[in-house]
Amino acid sequence: MAPNARAGDRAGRRARATGDANDADDAEREANETLDDEDERSGVARARREAMETGEGSDAEAAAEAEAAARETVQEKRIRLAKAYLERLREEAAAEDTDEEEEDGEGKNLDSHARLAGRLMMEAQKKSGHQREAIADRVRVSARASGTWRGHKRAVTGVALTEDDRTAYSVSKDGSIFMWDIETEKRTRFPRTPDVVVDPLQGGGGPQAPPKCGSHVMLCCAVSGDRNLFATGGADKRVHVWDTRTMTHVTAFAGHRGAITGLGFRHGTGQLFSCSEDRTVKIWSLDDMAYVDTLFGHQERCIGLDTQRRERLVTVGADRATRFWKVPEDSQLVLRPPQGGGQAESCAFTAHDHWLTGSQDGTVAIWNTQRKRAAQSWENVHGFRDVVAPRGFSDTDAKTAQEQREAAQVSSGISSKNDGGVGDMASWVSAVHVGKGTDFAASGAADGAIRLWKTSHEGEPLVPLDCLPARGFVNAIQVASTGRFVLAGMGQEPRLGRWGRDSGAKNGLVLHPLDLEKM
User: What is the pLDDT of residues 451-469, one digit of tens each?
Assistant: First the structure.
C-alpha cells in the first residue's frame, strides 16, 4: 500500500474516533439534560403534592402551576384549550336538555363528528355575522323591577357592552368614565382624561385645539372584543385609548377638527373608526397605535356610526344623509329620507348589508344596499302621534304598537299632556342597537318608552315587540347578545346639546331585565 494511502486511512480512523467521541459526549450531555429536566419536573410535582398534603396554602400550589404553565408549549396549550372548549360544549348541550333523545340514539352526544362539526360551524357563522340567533320571539318583558345605576352627575352620553355581556362602560357630559359589573352592579371609576396641552410656540392651537370651556365633555365610547382596549371621545377632539385591565390611559389620537361624536371597533380586529363634527370619518389601527386614513363625504356634522366584521360601516349626519361605506373599494352609497322625512339620528347594522336608522320624526326604518329608499318604515313609533305601519301590516298591528308605547309612557309618568318639557324632541330616536349575532333590537327616544324589535338576517320584516318604560333622553342603548337585558344610558339632556331638559328624569344607567322562554 502506498504511503499516502496508509496516511489517509490512519487520518480517517482518527476522525471517526473523534466523531464517535463527540457523539458520545453529546449523547451523554443530552441524557444528563433529560435527567435534569425529569428531576426538575418531578421536583415540581413533588412540591405540589407536598403542598396539597401538608396544606401549606395556595401560594406554593399557585407557584407550581405557574411554573408548569410556563413550560407548556404552544401546541400543548392549543390542545388543552381545545379539550376545554369541547368539554364546555358538552356541558352546555347537556344543560339544555338532559331528557330529550334523538331517533338515532345519539341525543346530545357531541362526540359525533357530524354534530360537533355542525355546532362549530354554527358558532363560527354567528361570530362572523353570517348567521343570526333567533331569540326575539322568545323575549318577554320581565316582572322583575328595572335597576337604576347612579354615579354620573350629568347626562350619560355613551354606553359600551363587552361581548360576554358581563361588563359595561359608560361616559357622561361631566367627563366621568365608569366600568360596571352587570351581575353585582359594582362600579369602578376610571381616572379623568388627561388635559390636552397646546404649546403656541410649537405650532399648537388652531382647529385641532380643544375648546376653551367644556373640553371635558365625553360623547361616545367603544370597547374592543379581545384586545382589552377601551376608546372614548368627546369635545376635546381627541380619541382616547384605555387599557381595561389596568384602567390606565394608553394614548390619545389627534386629527379631528371637531368634537368626536361616534366610535366603533371593527368586529374581531383592532381597527377603530371615529366620526366627528368636522364631517369626516377617520380610521385608526390600535395594533400599531397609528392613524390609517380619512373618509370624506358628509356635508354637515357626522352624528353617529356603526361597524361590522367586514370593512363596512354606516354613518348618519346632519346633512340628512345615511352613508354606507365600503372602505377597501373607497366607495360609498348615499341614501336620503323621502321629502318631508326626518333626519336620521342613529344607526345600527342588522346584517352585512342591512341596517336600522332612527329619525327625528319618530320613524324607525330598515335599509339595504339594493334600494335607494328605506325597505320598511314604522312611522311615529316614538313620540305622541298615531303609529303608521308599513305595507304588509294591518291597522291592528299599528294600534297594538301604539298601545304598547302608551302603556310604557304611563309607567314612566309621560304623556302627550305632560311631555316632561321636551316638546317635539320626544320623538327624536337618538339610539338604536342590535344584539350582536341576534335578531333582537331596541330603540330609544325621549318619549318615555324603549321600543323592542325583531329583525331578520335578510333585513325584512321589522316587527315591533313591546315597550319598556324609560323617563328622560335615551342617549345610548345596548342589547345583550343573550337577550337577557337591555341597558340604556339616560340623561336629562340630549347627547349633543342642551336645547331640551326633562327635570323629572335622572342621569344614570337603567337596566331592564328580560325573560327568555325555552324553545
Answer: 999 997 665 689 999 999 9
Over residues 135-146, the pLDDT tens digits come to 999 999 998 888
Helices (H), 307-443: 395-412
- Residue listed under C-alpha cell 336608522: 357
Cell numbers found for residue 335: 341614501
CATH number, position 167: 2.130.10.10
CA torsion, ordered 126, 117, 226, 456, to nearest 10 deg: 0
Cβ partners under 8 Å of residue 485, min gap 6: 165, 182, 511, 512, 513, 514
Is the separation of the CB atoms in 514 and 485 below 8 Å?
A: yes
Helical H segments across 179-299, by residue range: none
The DSSP letter of residue 389 is: -
Cα end-to-end distance, the chain, whole Å: 94
Give DSSP secondary structure letters for 138-185: GEEE-SSPPEEE---SS-EEEEEE-TTSSEEEEEETTS-EEEEETTT-
Residue 431 within any structural domain of the chain: yes
Q: How far apart are CA 345 and CA 319, in angstroms?
A: 11
To 10 degrees, what angle do helices 3-54 and 58-70 make?
150
Asked whether residue 302 is domain-assigned, the answer is yes
pTM of the model as a whole: 0.78
Q: Under 8 Å CB-to-CB from 463, ≥6 apart: which residues?
A: 136, 453, 454
Domain with 405, as residue range(s), is 137-516
Q: How far apart, in whole angstroms, are the C-alpha atoms of residue 221 and residue 170?
A: 7
Report which DSSP code applies to 59: H
Q: By C-alpha distance, which of 227, 160, 165 is closest to 190?
A: 160
The partner residues of 223 in beta bridges, in order of sequence, read 230
Amino acid at position 426, single letter: A
Residue 456 lies in a domain: yes
Rounded to the nearest 10 degrees, the angle between the axes of helix 74-96 and helix 113-128 is 100
Q: Residue 292 is inside which H or E element, if any?
A: strand 290-296
User: Among candidates 159, 287, 308, 293, which has minimal Cα distance to 228?
Assistant: 287
DSSP conformation class of 323: E
Quick: pLDDT tens for 335-381: 999 888 889 999 999 988 999 999 999 999 999 998 889 999 999 99
If one counts the domains in the chain, the total is 1
| DSSP secondary structure, 425-487, as one string | GGG---EEEE-TTBSEEEEE-SSSEEEEEE--TTS---EEEEEEE--SEEEEEEE-TTSSEEE
Residue 398 in any domain: the answer is yes
Q: Cα separations (Å) of 271 from 127, 222, 284, 308, 342?
A: 17, 12, 6, 11, 31
